[in-house]
Design brief:
By secondary structure, this protein is an alpha+beta fold. Among the domains are: about 150 residues, Histidine kinase-like ATPase, C-terminal domain (Heat Shock Protein 90), CATH 3.30.565; about 150 residues, Heat Shock Protein 90. Helix 7 runs parallel beside helix 11. The relative contact order is 0.07.
């Protein structure tokens, strides 16, 4: 609801000055700040002058819209109307006087502008949101205060405009100074950021070089260890075969212990070498079509000679149907060898079952190694895939690298690994890999539970 507070005629320059003055006074009464008072006064002055120049005369109404909570000013005339209102409001129109940008400028000064024009005349309504709520009971007080305002001459209004202009220029100068200070601070910050990036690049280069040196050292040491370890294993086997004569029970026990220690150390060296290779060049994948039956047959041929009557049985189940997956054969075999070796090592009796199944709409394949061993506690499961981690309790120890390497290789192949176990219920290690892919697939890993 628009409540009119004051209506004035527009017929000469004196009326233009008065209209501007009343606009400023009303804005002040309603609680607007100095800058908003200037905006309202400038917008009113522009509209009233347009009515005077283009129509010869007009009427201005000051009011408030209590529903929208806005100050309103309406200027109407009976002139010929505006030929291109859209162009005028957009600021593209240039009048014969060289101006034509008053309405577009007024639109920017106010929160709302409504234009109604035609051959019978033009009506322009502008509005600005009130700084504080206004009630109907406040209207008499506001109208009385506005009517008590003094009339001004054009010279007085021009003096007031000059004062406002000087104040605005002062504010602009202060803001320009603040902007210059802020720009200097940003330049200093940018220089600091550039220096920090340079330092980080140097540190990254040093870390890469240190990692390369570490990988080279571990690779060299691992290779150097393997030769004497193989010699120790060969000599111990030769002596235990009694080829050079009989051994006493104590000697045979000592040689068996030496061979077992050498085998354990060789396994640790091999794991360390594999981890070093993965760190140095593990991202060089050789993806090729692999027949699932051939993969399982290779594992069967590799582990069957190691199975003894005293240990667990190894059961490698045939797939439900022939299938081909695209992956890196050496890395896939490494993952499965680590799983099966661990299962055989920590399962004193019972069985180790290797199985496969398709998941997620036959787009992924899961390899599973289930044992009937003592099981793994929840606390130990969280450490399994970390480098150099060891299970608490139990007599057998590994290098702590095999499962960490499996985790890294599965990630390179676009999949993941995980474990499901409970004390006394055995353990199931699994890896889920994409069945067909031309590059590692990251982000979506179906099936198998949560990896550690």
């Amino acid at each position: 609801m628009n409540a009119v507070l004051l209506t004035l005629p527009v017929a000469n320059e004196q009326h233009v000055a008065e209209a501007r003055s009343y606009g400023r006074q009303l804005a002040a009464i309603l609680g607007f700040g100095v800058q908003d008072q200037t905006r309202v006064a400038t917008a009113v002055s522009e509209l009233v002058r347009n009515a005077l120049v283009y129509a010869g005369r007009g009427t201005i109404e000051y009011g408030t819209d209590l529903e929208a909570q806005q100050l309103t000013v309406q200027v109407s005339d009976q002139g010929p109307g505006i030929a291109s209102p859209t162009d005028v409001l957009s600021g593209h129109y240039v009048s014969t006087t060289g101006m034509g940008r008053g309405l577009s400028g007024t639109r920017r000064l106010m929160d709302h502008l409504e234009l109604d024009t035609g051959p019978a005349g033009t009506r322009v309504l502008i509005a600005k949101n009130l700084p504080a709520p206004l009630e109907t009971s406040d209207l008499p007080r506001i109208r009385a205060a506005l009517l008590q305002g003094h009339r001004v001459t054009p010279v007085q209004e021009l003096q007031r405009q000059n004062k406002e202009l000087l104040q605005t220029l002062g504010d602009l100068a202060r803001r320009e100074q603040q902007l210059a200070t802020l720009n200097r601070e940003l330049e200093d910050t940018n220089r600091g950021v550039v220096a920090l990036y340079s330092e980080l690049e140097d540190k990254a280069a040093q870390l890469r070089e240190a990692s390369r040196e570490k990988s080279l050292f571990l690779s060299y040491v691992s290779h150097e260890f393997r030769t004497p370890l193989h010699s120790m294993l060969g000599l111990s086997r030769l002596l235990l075969s009694h080829a050079d004569g009989a051994l006493s029970a104590a000697q045979e026990q000592q040689l068996t212990l030496m061979r077992s220690s050498a085998e354990e150390l060789l396994g640790m060296v091999n794991d360390l070498l594999d981890m070093t290779k993965a760190e140095a060049g593990g991202r060089d994948l050789k993806l090729e079509p692999l027949e699932l039956t051939q993969i399982l047959a290779t594992l069967r041929a590799l582990f069957q000679p190691l199975i003894t009557d005293a240990g667990p049985r190894l059961i490698i189940e045939e797939p439900q149907r022939p299938m081909v997956l695209y992956s890196d054969a050496s890395k896939l075999h490494q993952i499965l060898r680590n799983f099966i070796s661990n299962a055989l090592k920590f399962t004193p009796a019972g069985e180790v079952v290797v199985s496969t199944r398709l998941t997620d709409g036959d787009h992924w394949i899961e390899f599973s190694v289930q044992d009937s061993g003592p099981g793994i506690s929840v606390e130990d499961q969280s450490l399994l895939f970390r480098e150099y981690s060891q299970l608490r309790g139990g007599g057998k120890k590994g290098s702590g690298l095999g499962l960490a390497l499996s985790h890294r290789l599965a990630t390179l192949l676009g999949g993941r690994v995980g474990v499901e176990s409970a004390p006394g219920a055995g353990a199931r290690f699994w890896t889920v890999l994409p069945l067909r892919t031309s590059a590692p697939v990251m982000g979506h890993f179906p099936g198998g539970g949560d990896s550690t």
